[in-house]
Write a structure and sequence with these properties.
By secondary structure, the protein is of the alpha+beta class. The chain has five helices and five strands. It has helices spanning about 1-5, 60-70, 75-80, 115-120, 120-125, and strands at about 15-20, 30-40, 50-55, 90-95, 105-110. The radius of gyration is 15 Å and the shape is globular.
């Protein structure tokens, strides 16, 4: 839905298979970080087949407080605003956030490169 909503998939293109897996040694304190691998109905130039899905763990009072007062939404907003403008940032294919509740969802490419884990800190991308 997020890929289609943000104009990355047309009506005739579709995702046929989705595989979801944990990142090894993920150390996120207030976020859940998941690796998603997809297969499309056809080759779609410029669209990756591997993504990172990062969501906040806000269903407990402690998790919600950490997200709201820690400014967790700033990260996803920054990446969404600047991923297409700055080198070495993962491209963002979808993002939504709510500063009031602290909840956020970020769908970004899972690329190689300089190691996003060490660029952003292991709280962001988990260990490589």
């Amino acid at each position: 839905t997020m890929l289609r909503k943000n104009g990355h998939l047309t009506r005739s293109q579709r995702v046929d298979i989705v595989r979801v897996s944990d990142l090894n040694d993920n150390r996120g304190l207030t976020s859940s970080i998941t690796k998603i691998t997809v297969e499309y109905s056809e080759l779609i130039p410029g669209l990756p087949t591997t993504f990172i899905l990062k969501t906040n763990v806000c269903w407990t009072p402690t998790g919600r407080a950490a997200a709201v007062f820690g400014g967790a939404c700033r990260e996803s907003k920054f990446l969404a605003d600047y991923s297409c403008k700055l080198e070495n940032l993962p491209r963002v294919f979808g993002e939504t956030h709510n500063f009031f509740t602290g909840e956020r969802v970020l769908l970004a490419e899972c690329g190689e490169g300089p190691g996003h884990n060490f660029f952003f800190g292991n709280q962001t991308w988990g260990m490589n």
